[in-house]
Amino acid sequence: MIILTEHSVYSVEDRGGRIVSDCVLEERAVCGEALADGAVVALADGELAMIKADGVFRQKVDVAGRINCLHVLFDDPLTLLIGTEPSHIYRIDYGQTACLIQDFEELSCRDDWYTPWGGPSAVRSLVHSGDRVYADIHVGSIMRSDDRGDTWEPVNPELNEDVHQLAISDAAPNRIYANTAEGVFVSDDGGDLWHHRVGGLPCLYGRAISVHPADSECVLATVSEGPHSSGSGRLFRSDNAGRSWMHVTDGFPTTTQDNIDTFRVCFDVEGNAWVAVEKTLYRSIDRGLSWEDIWTAPCNISVVSCSSR
Description:
Elements: E1 2-5, E2 9-15, E3 18-25, E4 29-35, E5 38-43, E6 47-52, E7 55-60, E8 66-74, E9 79-85, E10 89-93, E11 99-100, H1 102-105, E12 122-129, E13 132-138, E14 141-145, E15 153-154, E16 163-168, E17 176-180, E18 183-187, E19 195-196, E20 205-211, E21 219-224, E22 234-238, E23 246-247, E24 265-267, E25 273-277, E26 280-284, E27 292-296, E28 301-305
Antiparallel strand pairs: 1-2, 1-28, 2-3, 4-5, 5-6, 6-7, 8-9, 9-10, 10-11, 12-13, 13-14, 14-15, 16-17, 17-18, 18-19, 20-21, 21-22, 22-23, 24-25, 25-26, 26-27
């Protein structure tokens, strides 16, 4: 598992029930993903850092704008998609030059993308299963590629366009989850038809979402009363693909002061669940039913990523 804070990058492992954390990079990273044998992170200065057991390997990346998210398409050789603000997507084979995906630039819906504060839209998260890749645009709904990012199209715009994170499981590659400003939407056919699934959610402003790698109906999502609401952050779980939701409180805070943001909830390859709340890392070994706080970072955690493949 890789954990990003404001100032550092940590590797956190469960070694026979004992949680061991190592600071692997004393620099600010803005996003990253865990790999089976390490991690790759994007640093605030625009570099990529490959973190392996034998060291940290850096690469300067020439992209327009700020790196906002990255996603691993292949582990070996390492191939990434990089999403930026303003909204561009690049493909990069590690060690090679980043290539702008031109078809993404030519989408006719780009003129409709916006932000509530008037700044440029951003690619907020990227997920894939098989050859299909999804990109969520903040704000502009979801774009879909059926050829690992070569060509793109919008999904059916039946869901709220203010999407904050996507989740997908290899157990059901056509089921895609989107946590939005109006709660969770689910598509069972790859984005053609969407269902608004908010039963049991007392508030709908959603941020993070993650799905079990072996059970596509087991999902965790965070909601609050709004983007700046204090004291209303909550964690919910579903065992039926979002048709009903249960508030998580066993060993976990009933509410949190701030939103539990995008990239702070994840499942690992063994099905354990992890959530970061401010400086505290929580773990569940029973699919999100009960939790324990197992590690405290020196400052607030911004990203938690587990390898789920």
